[in-house]
Task: structure prediction
Amino acid sequence: MARVIPAVPVRAGPRRPPPIRVVIPSIGLDSKVVPVGTRTDAAGNLVWETAAFAVGYHRGTASPGEPGKIVLSGHISSPREGNVFHRLPELEVGAAVVLYTVETAYLYRVVKREVVLPTEVRVLEPTDQELVLMITCVPDGIYSHRLVVTAERV
Result:
């Protein structure tokens, strides 16, 4: 997933705790969540950091319990960093997603699935609604597009 990407909108001010675990029962996912950010590559392009063998939480995006987009990403397949989101393409609208923080658990339901180009900025636009965006590369082995699964708080 280290492709040139749009910058993730950053939230300021007092914050709730970030997610530390995500569970999606319908696809058998139970993963730790670790903070990731962006960096500049050798060519000067902005690229997302990736989480090895875990789901990445993009620092500066909303936290569970806050309005805005909670941006999570993970590999569909990577020989060096695992395949935490390998079953994300199977996730259906209506499926439950549970995010855990050090304080409590938050329940979300999948409301939308879409495939976009890696540079599609529309999916990251700010919102007042509490949403989870889960992003991975597709199709597996080619990685030319991104699957974006959106879930809203129940």
Notes: The two ends are 29 Å apart (CA to CA). The longest strand covers residues 105-116.
